[in-house]
Amino acid sequence: MPTISSALEGNKGIGPGFDFLRLMLALLILFWHCFALSYGVDWSIRVLHGPFRLFIFTLVPSFFALSGFLVAGSLMRIDKLHVFLLFRVLRILPALVVETLLSAFVLGAWATIYPLRDYFKSPQFMAYMLNILGFVQFQLPGVFEHNPWPNYVNFSLWTLPAELSCYILLSVLMLAGIAKERVLLLAIFLLLTLGCAGADIFGFITYTSSDVLSRPVLVSCFAAGNLFYLWGDRIRLNPFLMVLSIACYSLTTYYLYPFMSLLGSLSIAYITIYVGLHRIPKISFLGRGDYSYGIYLYSYPIQQTVVWLFPNLREFYFVFFIAAPFTILFAMFSWHCIEKPVLSLRKIFMPKSRVYSTEKHSP
After folding, report:
1. How crowded is residue 169: how many other Cβ atoms within 10 Å of its Cβ?
2. Please, what are the averages of pLDDT over each run of 10 residues along the chain (363 residues)?
């Protein structure tokens, strides 16, 4: 049974299934949002506490675990903090700026129920620009007010503060000179996550099933991905461990909420990496770029637009078959016209031989 490190070395440092996994996670999130946006908030809350809970609560944590794993690989090759931060900015900011401006100036101006003069003068419109800086705003004045999930233009951005928290945490570790000290980082991770669990058990904090996708949990999934990369030479790709991880994640998701940051994050990280290190056939026309980030950015506003335009056809299958092709087209545009050209600027700061493909794919 190969280790994580040997599996990576055998594939020239690239997880053979990471591309497919990232793309499928993005599309599955889009698929789930088709239900939520078609049938509304109350319906979604009931589903989140039903039998599909495990499926829904697997998607975003998997993204964060995978991101943590890939970013750890990037960090191991980058010794300078300013270069690491620059790479993160180049990966996230340009596409986010374009999506924010398109949502505010094009979609919002088209869909608002207010006169355009009032729309553009609204403090809510100006506040929406804070998305560019990571201060997430979901609403634009008079936009989607009568949708089943009202007012939210791009709820997908709720994960952005958690992602920025991960990068800030890594930056602090780099400044402290311990970002590669795997024994110390493992000890810190265990202490913090056990502390969170203990605080809930003894009533110092309130941690419920609705908090499973809270920011601390997502950050812990990212950290678990980091640890799996750092300890990759000791962790084997074992089918028994895979089954055990699935069982453990299921238990923490449904019942053992206090241990989600510890057991849940370690389990989902192992599941994600195990799948990503196996070869999975690619979808040919979707294999020409990394479209997952574009799907993440554009899917929600496009789906809300479909629901708004066709109030008598608010069924998940209709929203999916209309929104999915448009989302993929926007994602292709984002990758080929914005993300890929900007990422090519990294060659200025690092020799070509050190810019690995895993870095370009970090979510």
Report:
1. 15
2. 90 84 94 95 87 89 94 86 91 95 97 96 95 93 95 94 92 92 94 80 59 76 96 95 95 81 91 92 78 96 97 94 96 95 83 44 42
Rounded distance between C-alpha atoms, residue 247 and residue 239, angstroms: 13
Q: CA-CA-CA-CA torsion for 208, 259, 36, 92, nearest 10 degrees?
A: 120
Residue 64's nearest CA partner among 237, 247, 213, 258 is 213
Q: Residue 287 is encoded by which pair of tokens? A: 């294999």
Beta bridge partners of 3: 236
Q: Exposure pattern of 11-22 as b/e (b: 16+ CB <10 Å)?
A: eeebbbbbbbbb
Distance CA(17)–CA(223), nearest Å, equals: 21
Contact 145, 139 (CB under 8 A): no
Structure tokens given for 109: 């101006």
Give one DSSP letter per residue of 303-345, joined into a string. HHHHHHH-TT---HHHHHHHHHHHHHHHHHHHIIIIIHHHHGG
Q: What CA–CA distance (Å, rounded) separates 330 from 103?
A: 13
Structural domain boundaries in the chain: 4-78+176-360
Q: Which of 362, 354, 361, 338 is nearest to 80 (CA)?
A: 354
pTM of the model as a whole: 0.91
Quote the tokens at residue 59. Answer: 């998607």
Residue 58: strand, helix, or coil: helix
